Structure formats: structure tokens, C-alpha cells
């Protein structure tokens, strides 16, 4: 399994903060493709979003970052702290 | 020195004098301390703001801030540094963030504190949500100017 987290506006738009998903995606991009089939909000937030931010195990990642069972993958909008 | 917390994510407010005293404790070679405090404005994008709520990504936030802090230590000769970022609900005039840096000579502390704040803005996973006086809520958009501010430090 992988642990997938959604933050800020993503959490609200997608209606969940985190979920466990079966680890059968080789990359973040493959996971996004799969999640995007859930509906319009998912496609808009993850697949069609040029500003999508990704982290794998607390490090900044890209769509081609490899993932494996036990990983924590997070999706979020550009950060606005400070 | 190793027990001193260099990164603090907390709901409660902080006291600048206390924090700077802790930063300086045990360092007789410090000649300069630069501190930056970010505070909540009562207006953003032309609208009055009643509440500002800070969300973060526990675990990644600490890692991202420590990475920024250590990079500042690599780039400039610093004696000590501290980053405090508050989370949760805040109100206009409240303190949100503190960056404090000490060094032997002032120039390094000035540069390093500026660098840490610019990188924190664009790399640490925090998100702001504003509540307007009529109760409407909105997520704050990332600013292009923050990305430009980060880019000035690219080597």
C-alpha cells in the first residue's frame, strides 16, 4: 500500500485528507493518471494542473519520480507560508 | 547546542527577546543578530481580512525548513539560526513567523536571514486561508513576486 495525502484547497476540493491505495503504480505520474479517472475534480486538481506540487516521503518530487509500497505521496497547491 | 531547537512549528505565540537570548546563549563570538518577524495584515488583495489560518504538512515542513536553514549555514559563516513558524488561527497584528540568525559580522546575518525567508516562502509546505468580515473563506494564492525573490539567490 501507499499513503496518499492531500493538503489545503486540494483536501477541500477532493473531499479527503489521506487514503491508502494499493501500490501498483510505478511513478507519481501513473498514480495521477489513475486518480484522475475518479472524476472531474480529480482530473482538474492533479492531471490538468500545471501548478501541482508533489512530495514523496517528505521530499519534493516530480511526475516521473518512482514510487513503491510504503511510500507517502502528497499532492498540494503552491505553498503560501511566511 | 545540539539540544537547542532550530526549527519550531507551533500554535502559540513567541517572544522575540526570549528567542534571541536563547539563540545567543553560549556564543561569545557573536557580533551580529538579525531577526525578521512576519505579522498578519488586516488587508490582502484589497479586502479586509478577519482571520488567517495556517495549515502545514507535518513532517515535511520540519524537513524543508531544516534544509533551508542548513543551506544558509553553508553559504554564509553563521554562529546560530532559528526558524519559528506558527500554525492554526491567527488575527491581524499577530506574529506568524520568526527568522533569527547570528554571526560574527553583520553582513552574513543580513544575507542569511533574507535568504531563509525567501526560500521559506516558496519551499516550506504551509498554506494560508483567509476569512473575510462577511464570513467568506478563500485560500491565498502563491505570488509570482515570491518566486522572483527566491530566484535572486540562485547561484
Summarize the structure.
The complex is a heterodimer of chains A (82) and B (155). Chain A has 82 residues and is α+β, with helices and mostly antiparallel strands. Helices cover 28% and strands 26% of the residues of chain A.
Question: Could you please describe the fold and organization of this structure?
Answer:
- The complex is a heterodimer of chains A (82) and B (155).
- Chain A has one domain: Ubiquitin-like (UB roll) (Roll).
- Chain A is built from three helices and five strands, in the order βαβααβββ.
- Chain A has helices at residues 9-14, 28-36, 40-47; strands spanning 2-6, 18-21, 53-56, 59-61, 72-76.
- In chain A, strands 2-1-5-3-4 form a five-stranded mixed beta sheet.
- The longest helix of chain A has 9 residues, at 28-36.
- Chain B is built from four helices and ten strands.
- In chain B, the strands form three sheets. Chain B has a four-stranded mixed beta sheet, with helices on both faces. In chain B, strands 7-5-9-10 form a four-stranded antiparallel beta sheet, with no helix packed on it.
- With 155 residues, chain B is of the alpha+beta class.
- Chain A binds chain B through residues 5, 7-9, 51, 53, 55, 58-60, 74, 76-82, and chain B through 38, 54-57, 59-60, 63-64, 85, 96-97, 117, 120-129, 139-142, 146.
